[in-house]
Design brief:
Strand order of the largest sheet: 1-2-3
CATH topology: GMP Synthetase, Chain A, domain 3
Largest sheet: 3 strands, mixed
Distance between the termini: 20 Å
Order of helices and strands: HEEHEH
Number of strands: 3
Number of domains: 1
CATH architecture: 2-Layer Sandwich
Shape: globular
CATH class: Alpha Beta
Strand content: 25-35%
CATH superfamily: K homology (KH) domain
Length: 96
Amino acid sequence: MTASESAAELIESVVRKKFTDASIDSVRVVERRDHEGDDIFDIHVVYKSGPPDARKMLQIMIEARRKLLAMNVETFPLFRFISKSDATRVKPPEAA
């Protein structure tokens, strides 16, 4: 398993652990470079019911970042929380 795959699993685990009250449809994590050339994890969290609690979304972002840094992964996680009904209108993340 690559470091990127391990990081993706960690991120999905954090999301699913925190969103016990929201029905998560999918979590897609793609490592790519942003428009400034920085490495990022582009993360789409699609939920069936919601919207999720804003505090939980913030907790997820903080916890994921801390755990990534603990793994010596400095790639920044960029989260997008999208309802399932809106997901068809949002382009999913793609690898660069």
